[in-house]
């Protein structure tokens, strides 16, 4: 009776777990197949951070346009109208107005001014804004680069978790078969209650591993969808690389060569260089404050007053007559020489030089970080290849040991503890091998990321 109840619970658990397996298989065989290149493309097309960075680049382009436009003369037109009651001095009529009456006056003018020289500040400002535009452009590249790396990590993580889950499915079937055989042997008195307990425990352990790995797979798949700005309900399947072929293609890399190549491709380095260039231009702009400034202005206008008269005839002048008589053209050439402005120019130059040193330090820090990352990546890919080789040998050995132990167990020469210890070691070795082989691919793709190669898998 106890055995019958145990078998019922076992079959109930098996049915539940089979449902979980089928649900996951539906996820894998989804309607939309997404390769790693597709995932990267969709992420770059939809990501909001990229759109924000591109808008910042557009703002920087407007700054360049404005800096260039500052070299041109401006042009302004103006019209004035004044109503006055009582006493005031009418400048148009050239006389004081007395009495309780309304006086009407009006005027119009057009003027233009241009800076002829300002210590080359405007020219250097154009150069600075151009460098700022390039810096904004490399910021877009940097965000894209970071997203590409995140997609790659998440994509391979999802594939690895699926492979682990698939392996756990096979391990569960093996445990279920062993439990079935042990139950039959127990019924005829060839196995003890301890053997059955060990067998049940192995099934439960494998079921738990399967559920945990299924959750890990679904979580990594959800993270990938979020990166692609895709609805969580969308069913997708991932394209697994040809692992063995990909591993064979992994070459030994020279850290110095990878670093030299990465310096030309990595947006972080490009941005730091452009930021340093902007800082250098700011020094020149600040120094321009020591130079004289020369401005040229020209204006033309006329005016009218209701009290305007001809001084010879003492007759009031009409509106049109006054516009003709009162017209005036004026020009101004203004030279401003800075003598002392409370050390403002001195402080501006000193701050600009400090900013340049900060930009230099930031550029060197970016290069140092890249050098460390590249050297670490080269070490990691070599270590991953060695780990994969060791994991392959370890799994083959564990598989052989498990089969031998199982044969001995089936004929009564090994106990249940030995069998399930061997099975646990074999399962762990299989998981280690799966993680090791995908780790080789991931580490090799990190090298591609640094040297600017397209991120794609070999699916031949």
From TrEMBL:
The uppermost taxa in this organism's lineage are:
Bacteria, Pseudomonadati, Bacteroidota, Sphingobacteriia, Sphingobacteriales
Q: What is this protein called?
A: Outer membrane protein
Cite a single Pfam family from the UniProt record: OEP
Q: What are the entry keywords? A: Cell outer membrane, Coiled coil, Membrane, Transmembrane, Transmembrane beta strand, Transport
Can you say where in the cell this protein is located? Cell outer membrane
Q: Which domain of life does the protein's organism represent?
A: Bacteria
Q: Does the keyword Coiled coil apply?
A: yes
Indicate the segments annotated as coiled coil, or none if absent. Answer: 356-387
Similarity comment text for this entry = Belongs to the outer membrane factor (OMF) (TC 1.B.17) family.
């Amino acid at each position: 009776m106890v055995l019958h109840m145990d078998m019922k619970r076992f079959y109930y658990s098996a049915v539940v777990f089979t449902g979980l397996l089928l649900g996951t298989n539906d996820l894998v065989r989804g309607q939309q197949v997404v390769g790693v290149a597709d995932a990267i493309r969709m992420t770059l097309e939809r990501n909001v951070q990229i759109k924000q960075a591109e808008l910042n680049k557009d703002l920087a382009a407007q700054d360049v346009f404005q800096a260039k436009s500052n070299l041109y003369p401006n042009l302004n037109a103006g019209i004035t109208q004044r109503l006055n009651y009582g006493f005031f001095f009418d400048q148009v009529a050239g006389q004081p107005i007395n009495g309780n009456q309304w006086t009407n006056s009006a005027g119009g003018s057009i003027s233009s001014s241009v800076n002829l020289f300002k210590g080359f500040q405007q020219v250097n400002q154009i150069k600075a804004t151009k460098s700022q535009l390039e810096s904004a452009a490399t910021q877009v590249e940097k965000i894209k680069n970071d997203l590409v790396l995140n997609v790659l990590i998440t994509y391979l993580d999802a594939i690895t978790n699926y492979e682990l889950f698939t392996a756990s499915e096979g391990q569960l079937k093996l445990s279920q078969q062993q439990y079935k055989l042990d139950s039959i042997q127990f019924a005829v008195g060839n196995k003890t209650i301890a053997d059955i307990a060990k067998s049940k425990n192995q099934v439960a352990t494998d079921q738990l591993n399967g559920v945990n790995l299924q959750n890990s797979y679904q979580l990594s798949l959800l993270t990938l969808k979020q990166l692609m700005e895709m609805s969580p309900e969308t069913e997708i399947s991932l394209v697994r690389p040809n692992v063995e072929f990909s591993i064979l293609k992994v070459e030994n890399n020279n850290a110095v060569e990878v670093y030299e190549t990465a310096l030309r491709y990595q947006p972080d380095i490009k941005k730091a260089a452009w930021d340093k260039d902007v800082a250098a231009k700011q020094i020149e702009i600040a120094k321009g404050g020591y130079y004289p400034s020369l401005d040229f202005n020209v204006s033309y206008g006329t005016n009218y007053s209701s009290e305007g008269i001809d001084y010879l005839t003492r007759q009031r002048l009409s509106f049109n007559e006054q516009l003709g008589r009162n017209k005036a053209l004026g020009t101004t050439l203004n030279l401003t020489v800075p003598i002392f402005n409370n050390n403002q120019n001195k402080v501006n130059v000193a701050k600009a030089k400090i900013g340049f040193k900060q930009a230099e330090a930031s550029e060197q820090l970016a290069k140092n970080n890249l050098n460390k990352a590249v050297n670490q990546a080269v070490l990691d890919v070599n270590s991953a290849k060695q780990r994969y080789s060791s994991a392959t040998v370890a799994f083959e050995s564990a598989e052989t040991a498990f089969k031998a132990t199982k044969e001995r167990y089936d004929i009564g020469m090994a106990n249940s503890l030995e069998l399930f210890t061997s099975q646990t070691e074999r399962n762990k070795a299989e998981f280690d091998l799966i993680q090791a082989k995908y780790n080789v691919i991931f580490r090799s793709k990190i090298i591609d990321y640094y040297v600017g190669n397209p991120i794609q898998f070999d699916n031949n």
